[in-house]
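Minutes, project check-in
Item: structure for the 349-residue chain
Input as provided by the requester:
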Amino acid sequence: MTTFPSSFQPGDIRTRADIRKELGGSPQGGITPSVEKKTVVLYSDIGSGEQYGYRDGWLREEDRFGPVFEYTGAGPRDDQAFVGGNASILRHAVEGRILHLFIAYGKAPGSDTKTHRYIGAFELDETKPYTVRQARGQDKKKRDVIVFRLRPIGAFFRSEADTIPPAKKTKVSFIPYRRRMRLEEPKEVRDARQRDMSAATVAARNQEDLIADYEEILSQRQHNFGRLEVQVRDIEETLQASLYDESAHTLYEPAGSTSRQALKDALMQLMDVSRHLNSIENGIPLRCMLLAPGLPGEDIRQLLTLHDVGIIYRDESGNLTELQGSDQNPPSDGTPRGMSCLNCPARLN
């Protein structure tokens, strides 16, 4: 995908009228697609989202693929969904459009016309295009919001003011499972993902399937489960655990494949999140479980045993099975074996 030729340079200040002449879009709204220009123009106001508990901005730390800008989807109340502008962002690659990001700057001299700083051209992260978090809507009620993960294409403008600040304190939030909470992606996006057989896409599908299938198992057991969000003091990125069984005080993390790297990444995620949970809650020790799309090799099984992490894997018949063995089973009294956790903060609902 090539960027749309633009007279704007990253860092330039423009009015919306100027932006529309060059990149298209509508005179109002935060997400404005243009069929003619093959663009989706994104407007961000860093300050406006803070009153609802979320903030657009750059992640301070880059990963091995480079920088990430987190952009919150549209929808002022209730759970956000992939409709309207949110669908346009998710479909941008399928439709051959470029994302262009602007951040509110101020006003034009001598007028009330708002100005916006051009940050650059972007595309969604291929491996993890978005995440779902909790935030308050205009009605002050908690709801799910879509947070898109944008990767810059070519040159971009970055300032400290546009970087997400670190959390002031550690806070763990439990978001109970609701059947309606799973986002339905647009059909063309789902079809494109199904055709994409790259390792990253297949791994993401495996993780989603493992979580969905085990959620069904926990639902049949009538357990109280959901996901966790962890804000860590002095860290700007929000840690997430896709599946936590509150009834059994058990944390699950899916691996995208049975490769050593994928399994070690899942183990590291378990370690990172679990240290912020109480080691014992309601009299039940914390237990960590890894969900794998196949049986891990013996060496990795030994590594997981060393860290007191159990294994649930998809067997040849497609069923999810807990690995049987003295090192992976709960004690005979049925109480899961816990992990030590020193000075863990209390979980907040």
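Outcome recorded: The helical segments are 16-23, 46-50, 84-90, 187-195, 199-220, 260-274, 298-306.
No further action items on this chain.
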